[in-house]
Amino acid sequence: MRKKLLFALFLFAVFNLLLGFTARVEVLYVVDGDTLMVKIGRVEEKVRLIGIDTPEIHFGSHLLRQAQMLQKPESQVYELGFLAKARVEEIIESCSQLILETDVQLRDKYGRLLGYLWCDGKLINEELLREGYAMIYTFPPNVKYVERFISAQKQARKERKGVWK
C-alpha cells in the first residue's frame, strides 16, 4: 500500500512538471514590467512572465540591445520600462483574483518561476503586448499562448502603441 501511495505521489509530481499548474497568488511587489514577487500559499516566489520582454529599468547590455532593436535612445527605452512597471502595478491593483499558470518549463536559468498571470480572466502577459508595453520573447517549450501573443503584438505595432510609437 505504501509503495502505491508513493508511486501515486510521484506520478502527480511528474504530471505537474509536464503539464504545469495553476495557483491563486498574491503579488507582493512588482520588480519590473515582466518580473514580480508573489506569494503562493505561504511560499514567496520571484516570477518571470512567460513570452514577453518589457523595456529594462536598469542601464546595461540588455537595455542597449532593446534600444538598438527598437531604434530608440536608451533613455527613452529606460522611461518605457518604468511605464511598463507602472502599468503592471495598475492592472494588479484592479484585480479581484490573480491566477498564475505555468507551462512546460517551471523555472528559468536564474531560478525564477515562469508563468502566465491572469487577472480576473484576462492574460496580463498578452495585455502588455497588446498595449505596447512589451515585446514577444518566447523560448520553447513555453509557447502555449504564442499565437495570441503574436496577434497582440501585431495589433500594438499596427496602432503604434507604447514601444512601437
Mean model confidence by pLDDT: 92
Strand content: 25-35%
CATH class division? Mainly Beta
Biggest pleated-sheet summary: 7 strands, mixed
**First-to-last CA distance:** 63 Å
According to CATH, the fold-level topology is OB fold (Dihydrolipoamide Acetyltransferase, E2P)
CATH architecture, by name, is Beta Barrel
Number of domains: 1
Structure description:
It is a single chain. The protein is an alpha+beta fold. It has one domain: OB fold (Dihydrolipoamide Acetyltransferase, E2P) (Beta Barrel). Helix content is 41%, strand content 25%. The protein is built from 5 helices and 9 strands; from the N terminus they run αβββββααβββαβα. The strands form 2 sheets. Strands 1, 2, 3, 4, 6, 7 and 8 form a 7-stranded mixed beta sheet that branches. Strand 3 and strand 4 form a beta hairpin. The longest helix has 20 residues, at 74-93. It starts with a helix and ends in a 7-residue tail after the last helix.
Short description:
This protein has 165 residues and is of the alpha+beta class.
Keywords:
7-stranded mixed sheet; two-stranded antiparallel ribbon; single chain; 165 residues; OB fold (Dihydrolipoamide Acetyltransferase, E2P); globular; alpha+beta
Task: Draw up the topology in text.
Layout (H helix, E strand, L loop, with lengths): L1 H18 L2 E3 L1 E7 L2 E6 L2 E7 L1 E3 L7 H10 L3 H20 L4 E4 L11 E7 L2 E2 H7 L4 E3 L8 H13 L7
Parallel strand pairs: 4-7
Antiparallel strand pairs: 1-6, 2-3, 3-4, 5-9, 6-7, 7-8
Helix pairs in contact: 2-3, 4-5
